[in-house]
């Protein structure tokens, strides 16, 4: 559905994108992750035809974006990072304008526009000018504008950036619903946990190059080095016993909870030590959790080159 092949883009002496390649399958949510200035937005702009690459090619459903930009764009909807509806038009008129630009029949615009505004909680504000909307409402309006043409592929650049919890949840719920309906979605985000929840696959970009790619679980397995073990005893533990553990591991204690961070290959050894402490001090284990590193931890390690 989407293919980038060796994309390069420089602005003066700054190399913003350096040889980015990836592909996205039908019905997939693909995340492009990276720190500020990594090249995410520049990459999306090249794929959607807003920027011409210095080198490389981009395809939408097999159509070369720069040889046939109108043909390629007819299959996509785009929600840019900056909320930019036409502020002096009403919510409804924004939708109608985009529908007319895509040559959509009037009856279809009315039917689909009403459905989208109801789904996104904007129908009651359909007569309000866009400039009166909150930031979250503007993001939802942009999503409705991108979907009015019923595109096969949706590009979302930081779709929940700066939104409150309720607006962000609404957008995420809509994205998952679109995927269930067979849409293909490419998104960029700074919210690593959000990417872990939404994306089937991700590519991590840094300094203009993709440095890791795979499913969130694949990346956790491939790069996750540490695990966290939390144990709740029925009584507090003497500091001298904790110091025995601290000689080998990162250990913190909050009353009866003991948290130990160790490498994965040390798990059996740590569990043996916990059982030894339990028997030696006559304690009872009331609760125990073993967790791998979060996807955010993995992301930070990859970007730092660890």
Outline the biggest β-sheet.
6 strands, mixed
Helix amount = 25-40%
What count of helical segments does DSSP give? Answer: 11
Please report the total strand number as a whole number.
Answer: 14
Order of helices and strands: EEEHEEHEHHHEHEHEEHEHEEHEH
Assess the beta-strand content as a share of residues: 25-35%
**Ends distance:** 33 Å
The largest beta-sheet arranges its strands as: 6-7-8-3-9-10
Radius of gyration, whole Å: 24 Å
Mean pLDDT value: 90
Structural class: alpha/beta
Keywords:
306 residues, alpha/beta, 6-stranded mixed β-sheet, 11 helices, 14 strands, 37% helix, 29% strand
Give a verbal description of the structure.
With 306 residues, the chain is an alpha/beta fold. The protein is 37% helix and 29% strand. The chain is built from 11 helices and 14 strands. Strands 6-7-8-3-9-10 form a 6-stranded mixed β-sheet, with helices on both faces. It has a 4-stranded antiparallel β-sheet with strand order 2-1-4-5. Strands 12-13-11-14 form a 4-stranded antiparallel β-sheet, with helices on one face. The longest helix has 16 residues, at 165-180. The mean pLDDT is 90.
């Amino acid at each position: 559905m989407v293919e980038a092949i060796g994309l390069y883009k420089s602005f003066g002496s700054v190399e913003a994108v350096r040889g980015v390649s990836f592909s996205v399958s039908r019905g997939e949510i693909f995340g492009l992750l990276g720190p500020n200035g990594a090249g995410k937005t520049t990459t999306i702009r090249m794929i959607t035809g807003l920027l011409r690459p210095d080198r490389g090619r981009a395809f939408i459903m097999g159509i070369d974006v720069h040889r046939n930009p109108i043909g390629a764009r007819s299959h996509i909807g785009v929600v840019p990072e900056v909320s930019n509806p036409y502020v002096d038009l009403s919510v409804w008129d924004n939708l109608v304008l985009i529908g007319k630009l895509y040559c959509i029949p009037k009856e279809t615009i009315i039917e689909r526009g009403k459905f989208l505004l109801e789904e996104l909680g904007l129908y009651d504000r359909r007569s309000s000018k866009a400039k009166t909307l909150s930031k979250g409402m503007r993001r939802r309006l942009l999503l409705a504008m991108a979907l009015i043409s019923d595109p096969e592929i949706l590009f979302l650049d930081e779709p929940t950036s700066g939104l409150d919890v309720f607006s962000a949840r609404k957008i995420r719920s809509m994205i998952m619903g679109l995927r269930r309906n067979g849409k293909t979605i490419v998104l960029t985000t700074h919210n690593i946990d959000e990417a872990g929840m939404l994306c089937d696959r991700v590519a991590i970009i840094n300094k203009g190059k993709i440095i890791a790619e795979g499913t969130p679980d694949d990346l956790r397995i491939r790069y996750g080095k540490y695990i966290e073990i939390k144990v709740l005893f029925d009584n507090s533990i003497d500091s001298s016993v904790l110091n025995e553990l601290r000689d080998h591991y990162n250990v913190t204690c909050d009353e009866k909870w003991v948290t130990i961070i160790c490498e994965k290959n040390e798990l059996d050894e740590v569990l043996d030590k916990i059982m030894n402490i339990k028997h030696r001090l006559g304690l009872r284990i009331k609760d125990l959790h073993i967790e791998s590193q979060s996807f955010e931890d993995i992301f930070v390690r990859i970007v730092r080159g660890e």
